[in-house]
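Dissemination and training. As part of the outreach component of the grant, students in the summer workshop were shown how a complex can be specified as a set of sequence lines and then modelled as a single object. The example used during the hands-on session is reproduced here so that future cohorts can follow it. Participants entered these lines:
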Amino acid sequence: MRPFEHVDATSVSDAIALLKAEPDGTIIAGGTDLLDLMKDGLASPRVLINVKTIDGLDRIEADAAGHLIIGPITTLARLAEDARVRQDFLLLSEAISVTASPQLRNMATVAGNVCQRPRCWYYRGTFDCFLKGGNSCLAVGGRSRDSGIFGAAECAAVNPSDLAPALLALGASVVIENAKRRREVPLESFFTAPQKDRPGFTVLGRDEMIVEVKVPKQPVGSRGIYLKAMERKTWSFAQASAAIQLSRAEARVTDVRIILGGVAPVPWRASAAEDVLRGKVPTGELIERVAATATDGAHPLGQNGYKVKLAKALVKRGLAMLVDNSRS
Amino acid sequence: MPRIVRTKVEFEGEVRERMAVVEEDHITPWGSGTPLRIVGRSYPRTGGVEVVTGKATYTADVQLPGMLYCRIMRSPHPHAEIASIDYVKAESMSGVRAVLCHANAPGIRWFGDSLLFDRILRYEGEEVAAVAADDEEIADGALSLIRVRYRELPFVVEAEEAMKPGAVQIHPGGNIVGGPDGEVYRRGNVREGFAKADLVVEERYETPAAVHNCLEPHCCVAMWAGDELVLWDSTQHVYGIRNEVAATLGLPLNKVRVISEFIGGGFGCKQGVGKHEIIAALLAKMTGRPVKLALSRRAENLAGGVRHPTIQYLKAGVRRDGTLMALQLRSIANIGAYGMGGSEVGGPIRELYRCPNVLTEQIAIHTNLGPATAFRAPGYMEGMYGLESMMDQIARGLGIDPLQFRLLNYAEKDPMRGVSYSSKHLDKAYRTGASIIGWESRPGGQNAGARRRGFGMASQVWGGGGGPPAYAIVRLNADGTADVLTGTQDIGTGTKTVLSQIAAEELGFKVEDVRVTIGDSRAGPYAPVSAGSMTVPSMGPAVRAAARSAREQLLNLAADLLRVLATELSVKEGKIKSTARPREVAVGEITGRIGDFMIIGQGARGPNPSDAKVRTFGAQFAEVEVDVETGDVTVLRVAAVHDFGRVINPLTLGNQVEGGIVQGTGFALMEERIVDSPTGKALNANLEAYKVPTMLDVPSIESHPIDLPDEICNSIGAKGAGEPPIIPTAPAIANAVFDATGIRIRSLPITRDKLLEEIRRNAAF
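and obtained this result:
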């Protein structure tokens, strides 16, 4: 591991100035992903800019309009336990409850989780992978059991986050600051699939910082569910997951968001499936159709065809549970 | 007087004839009628509090003044030649004390013609260089300064590829160990057997490479005291390491001392000497300072040993009435570049059922992968998966209940030699297990809905009889306490606890008045490797013999002092009683009278019975739930009924059964080292991507050992329990998955991708 300096930032502008001044600098909060990347030689920052010393970055509050404002270094454990979150944004607590282990959730932060790097074993291991400057993605013709079935143009690695699909299902956005300006980016356009000319995983610039995550107020009676399939019962990344937020008026679906995790380089929004459901009464038959549509456009590789069947099953089950629940 | 005898000792399925020095007198075994006060009762683990509070000194906790830390540079290629190596910069780095590589290391022979540091690297992870430095970070930094130019060589990682003519040769002798059909066993004539069968089934099974992933990685600390080497080592065999290290370094046996007090798991991968012990000893010699060498988790996964993957071609012929007519196995084990050979994959096929015609061919293949080593019930666990999956399939094919089918082919005598068993209660294990799980009342076959319940069962056979040589010494102190000394070790099973119970029982002492010293080749006499489920059945009788000798001496002394006949005296709870007088005398009163004159009892493990086969048996029954939409498999319950002879300590035995089932569940559902064939490199050499079970993956376990003493096998009536519990778990689960879904996965682990793919292919559900 390359020797590094550890600097405590005093304010957001201080952190951003440090980022700008030090091209080899990177922000550290929980460090649960960064330290592994450093140990494995996948990141070798010269300066670690500690933002845990900045006041107010771990706040959880509601603004005047009832939107939830989450500070970027709020730990997953605190977010999941927050009374307001449990009351109005239960989907977040559910997604966090199946994320990593209690020890990791006590350290890992919201922004860090959203920005975590892929787990693909070609990337994490000592391979000449596309993400590390290799010519092509080794998973495509290789061991692709854990790879994506959507949008795998040049790299088949998947976004590993549980929280990100849940946030997307709630229509969340991130507020990003750099030295010049502050902007709000919907999470839906925050994530990017890595490409040859643009190797990043998000639109976050290297001298930028996420300063808050904003979750809009949900309609009354709106409910969410997070279902996750793993290689074992816990402490594992998703083979596939489904985050669904469903709003209804009378029997009809007024709005629905279906986001799939573990199947694409970004949290994957199943828009076509949402369209099938929106405005309709969710019967068992309709739910089957929604689930069937959820994997439209999937292109499985040699060893991950099962993810198509799995993602459909999760969507079907999630919707059925949401509909059942609201009935009772 | 001791005498020398010849006796057969079975180790992990292999029977070897050995000479043994044994005590003259036969000790009457503790039978079912023998009243025992301490043996058979649960005692918490000696040292258990130290372990769970972090106070136990494992090898990695050994800190010595001036100690250096060693780190190893490993081959990034599956097969390469070192064209050049430049370590000048590393050597001159501040804080670096020594560098070892093929350019400067002594030419120590390691495997075949290869050397400890060889120019040819035969797997990803093989040792290229070693650095000893003031701390681990400096050592790591120095490794990054070593410049190696590799000439990459063609490689092969798949066993069936490596068998083909023209395949890359890993060693001069070729890739196939032994003959082209490997190790062959034959009885009867399988061709005739199949001809007489009404149903013949042939299947191919695969088992994965499973990594031991002991909580404590391989670790040692080497220190020279003059011309003597002291080695703290996480090992399953302190005496074995002493012998191997002494031979490798050309030292007299009495100048090497190996210490291993607490061990964080071995499971087979710490049976013999590894390169790390020799490297640490050499670096310690070069620097004149103690050297600690611990493998990283990644190194542990690449180079620390692995259960060899198998491919099994199994063929079975059976009559319509359920009589097994013939069994044939051709197994191919991928033992990596430096595996010593294949394990006994054919063991269960040869000896579980009464079958007149059997042929097994066990083939072991070298490839460019890390070395295969023993792993808890090597061979039998893999072979049992194939065999018991096949038996389930055949029973269902014939319309016979799978349990009934096994009883129909029950072997009353050893099918290999026709001799009687010293004891066998497998039928009772079947019945008890069936009753616990509710076998008779189980819902028949596949039920409707997404989540389907299924039941499966499988059998277990294994050795576990132990044998000589194994020695112990019991010393009585003036205050009436006792010390037990032996060179065995506790790899996490509770050896100390169990031996203290046996000694206390035989001495008539309280268990807290007996202290057991183990894990030091200089403190106690020879004891066998803690493997092959042989520690209790080897060491227990040795300790009992030593304790008996001490007790006899004590009673003779007491008789003399009390002026009574020794035959009138007995010891109970630390008090000497006479049938002639009412007064009890504390042992300490007697031993106190002779002060520092000591009573020393010696004991040796006697020979094994020559006319009986000693085996452990058992059966496990699993209930699973399979979600046929998501592919989730949940093991709900496992009922485990094993016959280990007498149970010495139900608590520590229960731990062994639970641990075996946990590891067996991992093998059934998730554990697998995955290698990328195009690059020959491991993809999951870490604990994130290589999955071991968590608490949530562990089923509810109901263990009911048979607990009947085997009065023929040895003087304590107990057999080993380390390995049996892992053997039937995977096939029991696999059969239950079939029962739930109608889908049979013939390649472990049964993962979601395989299950959903089979469901899709069969257009099921």
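The radius of gyration of chain B is 27 Å. Students were then asked to discuss how this feature might be tested experimentally.
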